[in-house]
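Dig into these lines:

——
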Amino acid sequence: MKKTLVPYDGSVFSVHALSWAIEHRSAPEDEIHLVYVEQEPQAWQTHGMEAQAVEAQLRLHAKEVLAPGREILAQQKIPHISHEMIGDPPRKIVELAIKLGCTQIVMGTHGHGAFLDLMLGSVATRVLHLAQIPVTLIK
């Protein structure tokens, strides 16, 4: 059984990546793991809020973001698990892939171009550099 990790943020790019992962499963029992990683907020964004309340709000938002992707998979009766995480997205994506024993990561790319990615960095570019398993980028 293969496990594919699909970072999902609700964008059209992540929907395309999920569709690609579904179409390229090699066996009905292959699992798809969806993950949404919420960047840890800066202190000024959560001034006066308790840490537990901040985390609960971030996880609730993550569940809402993942809901359409889970629905797509459920409608097609595809084995799947969703994960909500908080932290540095590229690092958390790769750490989760290792922890789960995934055979590949399939993710959308916003297609800004090499120059902008070089200047700003991108989640996809950083995942490519950090991952020790195949990464497929879908545009």
